[in-house]
From TrEMBL:
Pfam families: GmrSD_N
InterPro entries referenced in this protein's UniProt entry, alphabetically: GmrSD_N
Positions of the UniProt region annotated as Disordered: 593-612
Name of the protein this chain belongs to: GmrSD restriction endonucleases N-terminal domain-containing protein
Ranges in coiled-coil conformation: none
Domain of life the protein comes from: Bacteria
């Protein structure tokens, strides 16, 4: 079935339908943003009969229902409440033309720098008649008093504040283009000598507006909500992507529910918004409205699937658990209101779980996407996630996703499977989730982990921290110091300068194997010296005063082999620390890393990379 038609419609017809409310905007459309220069350029393009691009409209009356609003500048009380069509693409152009040509009020626009201004637009008739190449100069903008000023606003330059002044100076107001008869009568009264010029202007310029045809793509009312979302994102010339949240907001508004107020808060209700409540938790400050919607959709579709199974449906009759955008867009309002508070608590419980895994800062979180199924699971489990048996499984699943690097890219299918399979695994030890089965860690991956933005890099760093790693200088473990505001970062164990002096390749010395979290103060004391030198300096510092045994214990807390550090033996250090990191990875994932990949020296695992 064809879901759209393409046609042409005259500009006067479109503007009439917009001003009467037959054509309106869906509530998810952003406000009008075009500046004064863009408006003037558009008027010139129409006057020269240049193409200005197609617009896209959608029929109303189908299953997709949105809250609607008139185009900016039009009084909502003066138009029909039930539009025939909605603008999906072309809002900026149609709003500019409506305000400049279709309405008498000044246009609320802005300067190129964004300062709000009010403008009326005119054609200087004499300049316009000098030729098409003069049309850009012929279009002028005046302020809300229909004047332009000079000398820093002290003197009036052009004054068009009355019809007589307009006629005498031959400036034609753009808001009279669609009906110039009254202005023509006034011109006859105030400036008969200019009648010939006006008639020529009418023939060349006004007729261009009257005859102008815009290409129009009309979506039929049968178009799905997902298609509307996709179409808007693909064709929206404003360059601002439409979010699922905005589309659902418009859909719920048609049913009398304000989703935007629920998320962002309302001036009427003196209670923290849902967004503000999330932001009370450090690990949840980056949770988006779409994350909440996706988690609710998981639970709603799971509930629906269980109903289908209970009713005896089989095969394709059973609707799947889903986190895909189409399913989120179809989330019923009653499901949102029923699940929203519980899922919010699920996110909070997810934050408590992550703290237990030693994540304290949102910048440490490997994958934001993994929060969604985690919160959905927590919503179903309630306090049960704290039971040792369930907690151990939840932890293993989480670290499998992180260290197996399975939650990057498009993960909607994995999210849905994880919710179902985790709930099954909690009751049946034999039913391992696919994420746990699929997850693997190749030991050679340690050698390529250099970016702190990598999920596995972040995860391994936290695994080191949760073993109780302490700073080499300041008293206290790294995470406690971080919470106290001490400046921390991940630094080289064998310093970069020393490594380069030894001819080591950055591909070796810059990997996570040669890095650990320490304070900025410790890093400055390390400098570029050999480990044997900086360890002696650290231990002898009057504020540290540590013996070899105590310092060795600190190093072991970072999974750093102390003896290889003290002898500046990079080769032995590299292999021993690699094995120790693999041990904590194995412990977290509940399975051994891939076999046969962790043997040999750096030279063997990366030919020619170890020595420069």
């Amino acid at each position: 079935m064809t879901t759209f038609d393409s046609t042409k419609r005259s500009l006067p017809e479109l503007l009439k339908d917009i001003t009467t409310g037959k054509i309106q905007l869906p509530d998810f459309q952003r406000g009008w943003v075009w500046d004064d220069d863009h408006v003037q350029s558009l008027l010139v393009s129409i006057a020269r009969s240049f193409p200005v691009g197609a617009v896209m409209l959608m029929e109303t009356g189908g299953e997709v229902r949105f809250e609607t609003r008139p185009v900016e500048g039009i009084d909502p009380d003066s138009v029909t409440k039930e539009p025939d069509q909605l603008i999906l693409d072309g809002q900026q152009r149609l709003t500019s033309l409506t305000q400049a040509v279709g309405l008498d009020a000044p246009v609320n626009t802005r300067t190129a720098k964004g300062k709000p201004i009010k403008r009326h637009y005119y054609f200087d008739i004499r300049t316009a008649l000098e030729g098409e190449d003069r049309l850009e100069e012929a279009v002028i903008a005046v302020d809300e008093n229909r004047q332009t000023r000079k000398n820093f606003g002290r003197d009036v330059d052009i004054d068009l504040s009355s019809r007589q002044l307009e006629c005498e100076q031959l400036y034609f107001p753009c808001d009279k283009i669609l009906d110039s008869s009254e202005w023509l009568q006034d011109l006859f009264k105030h400036n008969q000598d200019a009648m010939g010029d006006f008639l020529e202007f009418q023939k060349k310029i006004i007729s261009a507006f009257s005859a102008y045809q815009l290409p129009v793509i009309e979506l039929k009312k049968e178009t799905s909500k997902e298609a509307v979302c996709l179409v808007f994102e693909k064709v929206n010339t404003g360059g601002v992507q439409l979010s699922v949240f905005e589309l659902i907001t418009a859909s719920y508004a048609a049913e009398g529910y304000n989703l935007r107020d629920d998320w962002f808060g309302s001036d009427i209700r003196d209670v923290p918004s849902r967004k503000a409540r999330f932001e009370e938790h450090e690990l949840l400050r980056d949770v988006q409205s779409t994350d909440l919607l996706q988690a609710i959709t998981l639970l709603q579709t799971r509930e629906r699937k269980l109903e289908d199974l209970k009713a005896g449906r089989t095969g394709k009759q059973v609707r799947p658990v889903s986190a895909k955008r189409a399913s989120v867009l179809d989330l019923p309002l009653d499901a949102y209101t029923r699940w929203a508070d519980a899922v919010e608590k699920g996110f909070v419980e997810a934050a408590y779980f992550l703290k237990g895994e030693c994540f304290y800062s949102r910048r440490e979180l490997p994958y934001a996407t993994q929060l969604v199924p985690l919160a959905a699971v927590m919503t179903l489990l309630g306090n049960r996630w704290r039971e040792p048996r369930i907690h151990a499984k939840l932890s293993r699943w989480f670290w499998s996703g992180v260290l197996g690097e399975l939650y990057g890219g498009a993960v909607e299918t994995r999210i849905a499977l994880d919710l179902e399979e985790l709930m099954t695994w909690f009751e049946d030890d034999a039913e391992l989730p696919r994420t746990v089965i699929d997850a693997s860690f190749d030991p050679t991956r340690l050698e390529s982990l250099r970016s702190r933005n990598s999920a596995a890099y972040k995860g391994i760093n936290v695994l080191i921290l949760r073993e109780g790693a302490e700073d080499f200088f300041w008293k206290g473990d790294i995470q406690a110091l971080d919470q106290q505001g001490v400046e921390l970062d991940i630094h080289h164990i064998f310093p970069r300068a020393w490594c380069e002096a030894q001819g080591l390749s950055y591909r070796i010395y810059d990997s996570i194997i040669n890095k650990t979290p320490i304070s900025a103060r410790t890093n400055r004391m390390i400098g570029g010296d050999a480990p044997s030198a900086y360890l002696a300096r650290l231990q002898a510092h009057k504020q540290v005063q540590l013996g070899d045994e105590a310092m060795n214990a600190l190093l072991e807390g970072h999974r750093i082999p102390a003896e290889t550090l003290r002898t500046d033996d990079f080769d032995a250090f590299y292999q021993q620390r690699k094995r120790r990191l693999l041990e904590i990875i194995e412990k977290a994932m509940g399975k051994k890393p891939l076999l046969g990949s962790d043997e040999g020296s750096p030279e063997a695992t990366e030919e020619g990379a170890y020595k420069a």
